[in-house]
Each structure stands twice: as structure tokens, then as C-alpha cells.
Amino acid sequence: MLLLTEIAVKNLLYLDGEACRTRAFHGPLLIGGWSLGGLLALRLALQGFADGLVLLGATARFTRSKEESDLGWADLYVRKMMTGLVQNRQDVETKFRQLLLTEAEWEAGLGESLPPIGSWTTPALIAGLQILRSEECLSQMKSITCPVFLVHGTEDRICPYGAALELMAQLPQAKLFTIPACGHAPFLGREDQIANKLRRWWHEQQD
């Protein structure tokens, strides 16, 4: 999974084996990521591939100690999820999915936009959880000097809002768009609002 993201971005940045910045052909390379994708985006930025980042419901380090429960999940819980996927995948996916949205968001029907349970294979889900356990970008955040636009809900139960505040404190050029009473999928039902905020932010960076 990590290798595929690197290959994808290198295919954009390199032409015939020679380094050619995408901006010379298509403009700056803006990389976006949600949740696990946010970790992958941060990793690419650390390698110097990004001209800008858009991170939605993201964190620089998912697993945390008990003392940092306001920033992430305990590694033990993630390992139990991995074991549970093999034993009773339906149950694990159902419980995890319930955490994605707030009660009000479920009642508003936002859950209907989520892909159906079973959209990913069990090995893919386990691989994703393993990345969440092992990937750590937090200690290198100050090395990311490109502009970063953060979108985070205050009621996010997957990547707690504290993780967004942590990113804000660590990233030299970050801007945080906070969405009150919002869970882990801040883009659902707020597409136009976020798109307008994103465009305005990116235009400011170009200016």
C-alpha cells in the first residue's frame, strides 16, 4: 500500500526517468488524504513530493498511549480489530462504521453515502490497520514546509480532534478548518462548503 502511493506520485513527477516537476506540465502537485490516506499523504510530503497537502480527519500518528487517548487509539485495540477481522469481519466492520459518524449525522442519512460493508478484502483491511499501527510521521512534522489545509470534525471518534490541533502546532504552514458537531467523515454533506474553503485557501497560497 505504501509502495503503491510512492509509485503513483513518482509517475506524475518523473518523465522518461528524468526528474520533471509536475508544475512544469500541469501545475503544482496538491496531495489529499482522508484518515489513513492522510498518513500516506504526510509520508509523501516528507519525501518532498507535495507542493501542498489537504488532510481530512487525519493524524500524524494513530496509535497512542493511554495518557494520549485524546489524540488516538491504543495499539492493543487496533490489534484486537485485526484479530477480529479474521474471526468475525461483519461485526468488526459494523462497529467501526458506527464510529465514523455522529448520531445526528446518522439520523440525517449521511451514512447512505458510505461504501457498503465488504467493499475491501480482509487482507487489505488488515494491511491498512498495520500501517495505522506502524506509521509515525509526528516526529518529522516540522520538515514539511509546504502549505497544509486541515479539515477536522470536533466529534471525530476515529482520529480525535486533538490530533488536528497537534498537527496545527507541528506543521509550519498549516491552516485548520474546524467543523463543529462533526464526526470522522467531515466531507459528507458538506461538499460545497469544504470545496469553497479549499479553493479560497489554495488561491491564497498561490498569491
UniProtKB/TrEMBL annotation:
Return any one Pfam family short name.
Answer: Hydrolase_4
Q: Which residues form a coiled coil?
A: none
**Keyword Hydrolase among record annotations:** yes
The chain positions of domain Serine aminopeptidase S33 read 26-187
Gene Ontology MF terms: hydrolase activity
Swiss-Prot/TrEMBL keywords: Hydrolase
Q: What is the name listed in the Swiss-Prot or TrEMBL entry for this protein?
A: Alpha/beta fold hydrolase
Organism the protein comes from: Paenibacillus filicis
Q: What is the lineage of its organism?
A: Bacteria, Bacillati, Bacillota, Bacilli, Bacillales
